[in-house]
Amino acid sequence: MNRRDFLKSGVLLSASSVLTFPYLTGATLDEKPYNVGILGYGNRGSGLYSILDEMSDKFHVSDICDNLPFRLDQAKNRTSGKDIRFHHDLNSMLDQKDLDAVFVATPLSFHFEHAKAAFESGKHIYLEKTMTFSVEQAQELCKIAAERPNQILQVGHQFRYSPLYFKVKEMIDSGYLGKITAIDARWDRNHDWRRYVHSPEFERQINWRMYREYSGGLAAELLSHQMDFIHWAFDCVPSSIYGIGGIDNFKDGRETFDNIQLAFRYEDVGMVGSFGATCSNKQEGYIFKIKGSKGMLSLLMDDGIFYPEEEVREELAEVDGVSGATKLTWTDNKQGIKLTDRPLKEGTYYAVEDFYRCLQEKRMPYSNAFNGGQTAIAVALANESLHTGSVQPWREDYNLIDHPTAKKSVG
């Protein structure tokens, strides 16, 4: 790459451009708070409540539903004095005529059933990832979404809304990293993933992530975020998926693996993806590395560094140091370039903010039934491979964004 090319592409890493995006900073429409209900008031549902309550000019939490009595008691205690209706039954909440949208934060195995019910009641839907439990459910929910274009379904893959990851996509699209051939992604912890159970009969309902009847395990709960970003950033899907894993540490009756490694082949773009997670070591924690012929991106959830290859680093140093045409912030050891110069909010905030804009503008979300469905299929295939030991090929009918309703905003 010559100096002129670097002068042109170097702007991508300037401090002024890293965190500015039209869909987050455009003109504000007439604001109207929407009445929303939260379905499932566990850790995720209560976290969503915090964000929605902070955005009270956009959303009013009018309803909370959970089938566990002590969860509803927790919600009532926390929201004492606020105008909120509480429900033990989903249909009771969906029957509320003034309810505009439902935030679904229930176990994965219920996502399809609950999203379908919300569709049928005429509500808009924010559905936590992964969109569905099975391939067939993903295909069916896409059909329902296509038949109801005036209802919005947004899937909670937050990276499609993160200013940092939007910038990374721009870098990939521009060729800044050169030819990218390898993705290394991990999400590790040293914890049994077990939650406190109030009484033994609630074990499977509270610790649902540990049981295959309800959960997609580590692939769904953690690695699906990184898988989904690769689909978006490279406009691709895997051609084949192979996984290995086991219950290697916590012999406590769980059924989902506590240690997995997945290999994804992206034949159309000439790339291999390695996705792994363990519950036995937290030293590296979250890792997301995108490796190209001109450099590597090393990403966290809210920060990132670009490590150029040696020849490219010399060229960048010359452009920055001699011409002053770009404003690059190098790491202390001068080996990498920082991608952010300010703190970012928690990723859900950006996603929920755009959900509000989708409701106002009546547009399809960036993370929607079609691309969210493809990621759900990838996760389902990964789990099928983990439990059968077989390579899972990607079939033509898994290409959900080919559906006529999947407009160009699908991405």
Automatic annotation (TrEMBL):
GO terms for molecular function: nucleotide binding. Residues 167-297 form the GFO/IDH/MocA-like oxidoreductase domain. SUPFAM superfamilies: Glyceraldehyde-3-phosphate dehydrogenase-like, C-terminal domain (SSF55347), NAD(P)-binding Rossmann-fold domains (SSF51735). Pfam families: GFO_IDH_MocA, GFO_IDH_MocA_C3. It comes from the Bacteria. Residues 35-157 form the Gfo/Idh/MocA-like oxidoreductase N-terminal domain. This is Gfo/Idh/MocA family oxidoreductase. The lineage of its organism: Bacteria, Pseudomonadati, Bacteroidota, Cytophagia, Cytophagales.
